[in-house]
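Thread: quick sanity check before group meeting

JM: Hey all, I'm pulling together slides for Thursday and realized we never actually wrote out the predicted structure for the chain we discussed last week. Dropping the sequence here so it's in one place. If anyone has concerns about the input, flag it before I start.
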Amino acid sequence: MAFIRKIKKGDATYLAKVESYREGGKVKQRVLEYVGKEENGVPIQKIDINKIEVENVKQYADITILYQLALN
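JM (edit): ok, ran it. Output follows.
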């Protein structure tokens, strides 16, 4: 049975989905996946970058640069 475990490293607290298993009569845990990070007691879910979709793109830097060049 899997459960969420808090892992503290330095000042940060990370959340991981782990499961317990027996190996040679000893109980061990294996990490199934990292869930995210905890900040101020509130869990922040990890975002999979492959699932992010771009809805629109705005291009404005070139216009700003041309405007600044025209003023000089």
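AS: nice. Residues 1-46 form one domain. The beta strands are 2-9, 12-23, 26-39, 42-45.
JM: adding both to the slides.
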